[in-house]
Design brief:
431 residues; alpha/beta; Rossmann fold; 13% strand
Length: 431
């Protein structure tokens, strides 16, 4: 059995795609069994061979005592018998699923697939994708027959970047297999590294759907409080004050307004909407939630511009500092960051915008969004937008913000309400 062969080190496990999801999984398994870490990016492989995480999520100690070979060579990859695919599943410019990385990874695995091998997909997809899109490629490229020659499973990733509390080890792992035998083996393999245990889903489709639902539920709930924040702004009351009061009831669900980006919550609902359309259902609630959340960056930018104008400033001469560019606090990940919407909206008013972020990579920001990160703040801004509440910003106070604003006066836009009840002299606004 594959599980026994792995723990006896008579066979190897391979992880394809060593990004935010794949690398932590590979390193954790490498503490227990022999692992091959595969990525098509040779530069990233070179960094990992030196014990460096290109995503800057893990320090060098995470690589210690790990039995792992990092490679981009198929000859080495084919030494494995258990393959975990953990590549990104983004959306395109039309908010449609972009399966190119996943299908390319499936072709890669197909080239090295052998009789008796297992393939487990972790990439977030719509229900049915593994069986309808990935397995046919595995069969076509390998010349092998699904079920007779190789087994397939699906186990959605649940890693939360930047979260040191909810890690791979202590969050229950959903697993599924293409048959009872494969489910049992896949579950035992993951139990090697997941201390919290595994949940055995009855089918691959159920496991795929569960992951989509996790993030869709969160997205819809955040969209509700984002819409409430727009209403409350018109009523002249602070949303966080309202939520604090409402939250005193025992069954109130605690969600907060903000920018919804990243590679999960801002993406996954579109996969479900797409699949629903294929089976003849037009999603109303999910689409509405996505519309609200995708609009928030532009809304924040417009509100900032209006407040600058209200202070009698020449909008074309205004300077705004945006603090934070990543998709969430205390991470370096800029994928699908909706801070860019704030920046673009401000620029549409011909406002001069500086962006600072202690976590974001300047080269990545330039490549991905054409935005140059500022390393030295000015002292004559008309407004400051705290878009991401990095821990480095927590120590900032009104006195510090005044040193960055022209004549010590101006506007503070506090997206996440971090400085609520702390600002007395500046014009303060939050969602």
């Amino acid at each position: 059995m594959i599980y026994q062969e792995l723990i006896d080190q008579n066979n190897k496990l391979a992880v394809i795609g060593l990004g935010y999801v794949g690398l932590p999984i590979a390193l954790e398994f490498a503490k227990k069994i022999e692992v091959i870490g595969f990525d098509i990016n040779a530069a990233r492989i070179a960094q990992m061979q030196q014990g460096q995480d290109p995503s800057r999520e893990l320090d060098s100690s995470a690589f210690e005592s790990c039995n792992i070979t990092f490679t981009n060579e198929l000859d080495i990859l084919k030494q494995a018998q258990f393959y975990i695919v953990a590549v990104p599943t983004p959306i395109d410019s039309s908010n449609l699923p972009d399966l190119k990385p996943l299908l390319a990874a499936s072709r890669t695995v197909g080239q090295v697939l052998k009789k008796g091998d297992y393939v487990v997909f972790e990439s977030t997809v719509y229900p049915g994708c593994t069986e309808e899109d990935c397995i046919p490629i595995l069969e076509e490229v390998s010349g092998l027959k699904f079920q007779d020659d190789f087994k397939v499973g699906y186990s959605p990733e649940r890693i939360n970047p930047g979260d040191k509390q909810h890690t791979l080890q202590n969050v229950i792992k959903i697993v599924s297999g293409s048959c009872p035998e494969s489910l049992a083996q896949i579950a035992k393999v993951y139990e090697l590294v997941v201390e919290a245990g595994v949940h055995r889903a009855p089918s691959i489709k159920v496991a795929e759907a569960a992951k989509i639902v996790e993030n869709t539920q969160r997205d819809v709930n955040i969209s509700l409080v984002n819409e409430l924040s727009i209403i409350f702004n018109k009523l002249g009351i602070n949303t966080f004050d309202v939520l604090e009061a409402a939250g005193t009831k025992w069954n109130f669900l605690h969600f907060y307004p903000g920018l919804v980006g990243g590679h999960c919550i801002g993406v996954d609902p579109y996969y479900l909407v797409h699949k629903a359309m294929q089976v003849g259902y037009h999603s109303k609630v999910i689409n509405s939630g996505r519309y609200v959340n995708d609009s928030m960056g532009f809304y924040i930018g417009k509100q900032t511009a209006k407040k600058i104008i209200a202070q009698g400033k020449m909008i074309q001469e205004a300077h705004v500092l945006v603090l934070g560019a990543t998709f969430k606090e205390n991470v370096s990940d800029i994928r699908n960051s909706r801070v860019i919407d704030v920046i673009r909206e401000l620029e549409s008013f011909q406002i001069n915008v500086d962006v600072m972020d202690p976590h974001a990579d300047a080269a990545e920001m330039q490549h991905e969004y054409g935005v140059e990160l500022t390393t030295q703040a000015r002292s004559d801004y008309d407004a400051i937008v705290v878009a991401v509440n990095h821990e480095e910003f927590a120590a900032y106070n009104e006195s510090y913000f005044k040193t960055l604003l022209k004549d010590g006066k101006g506007i503070l836009v506090d997206v996440k309400g971090t400085y609520r009840n702390q600002i007395k002299d500046l014009t303060y606004w939050s969602l």
